[in-house]
Amino acid sequence: QVQLVESGGGLVQAGGSLRLSCAASGRIFSINGMGWYRQAPGKQRELVARISSGGSTNYSDSVKGRFTISRDNAKNTVWLQMNSLKTEDTAVYYCRSVINLHEYWGQGTQVTVSS
Questions:
Q1: Which end of the chain has the smaller Cβ count within 10 Å, N or C?
Q2: How would you class 19 by CB atoms within 10 Å of its CB: exposed for 0-12, middle for 13-18, buried for 19 or more?
Q3: How far is it, in rounded angstroms, from Cα 69 to Cα 59?
């Protein structure tokens, strides 16, 4: 059974940094896109950043220049380095990936940025 396990969330002051990681495990034959989404209270889930198997990246305008997504195909892992965090970055962050042609989501990790 395929799983995505996230880690790295927590509480940080505005201006600080956090690094999220997401590791895929199980019977994996192929991994295509990997990405991070977030959902703040009362808001819809939104794309934060995504990376293709070839390394092409896309970012939401709200995080460009502050967040960096990266991945290690050999380790089936994707990271999200978040710098210069703002209070509006507070949300539950979810990892998403297309594995074996199926979509999978992680359980979510809470990121709270205090002022």
A1: N
A2: middle
A3: 9
Please work out, in degrees rounded to the nearest 5, the angle formed at the alpha carbon of residue 59 by the alpha carbons of 50 and 51: 20
Cβ neighbours of residue 80 closer than 8 Å, sequence gap 6 or more: 19, 20, 21, 36, 48, 49, 67, 68, 69, 93
Question: For residue 9, how many other CB atoms are within 10 A of its CB?
Answer: 18
Query: What is the total residue count of the chain?
Result: 115
pLDDT of residue 70: 97
CA distance 32 to 53: 5
Residue labelled with tokens 């940094």:
17
Q: Per residue of the chain (115 residues), give pLDDT as tens.
A: 899 999 999 999 999 999 999 999 999 999 999 999 999 999 999 999 999 999 999 999 999 999 999 999 999 999 999 999 999 999 999 999 999 999 999 999 999 999 9
